[in-house]
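Is this the right way to post structure tokens for a design question? Let me know if I should format differently. Anyway, here goes:
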């Protein structure tokens, strides 16, 4: 799995773009990277874009374990987060992630595109810059 972070400093949106094959191990690495960048940027919104994922090889047991870790982005009750789920992600996996997030993540939503997430937020012209 390859991933990169972008940040819109005006709207304080942290965008994670993920490509390739996602495994339990690579997902774990990405989870901790989200924590790092969400904290260092003080992002108000998170969008995790899985639309370029070629294989989502994450086990259901792992998803349940990750939900026990808590939200990767601090203060989940005030900060909206979106997962952009491609068809390869699968409706079943999407629903399982949504259920696993539970009441700790009331502002968590699965969408079909980054544009859909931005529309939900009412943002028309984001200005994303790469994070090192």
């Amino acid at each position: 799995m390859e991933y990169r972070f972008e940040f819109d400093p005006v709207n304080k949106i942290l965008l994670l773009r993920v490509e390739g094959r996602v495994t339990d191990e690579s997902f774990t690495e990405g989870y901790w990277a989200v924590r790092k960048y969400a904290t260092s940027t003080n992002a108000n919104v998170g969008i995790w874009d899985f639309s370029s994922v070629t294989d989502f090889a994450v086990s259901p047991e792992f998803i349940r374990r990750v939900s026990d870790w808590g939200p990767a982005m601090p203060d989940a009750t005030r900060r909206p987060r979106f997962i952009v789920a491609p068809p390869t992600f699968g409706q079943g996996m999407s629903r399982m992630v949504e259920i696993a997030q539970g009441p700790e993540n009331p502002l968590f939503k699965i969408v079909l595109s980054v544009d859909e997430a931005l529309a939900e937020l009412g943002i028309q012209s984001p200005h994303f810059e790469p994070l090192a």
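Format looks fine. Someone answered above. Worth noting: The chain has a mean pLDDT of 85. DSSP finds four helices and six strands in the chain.
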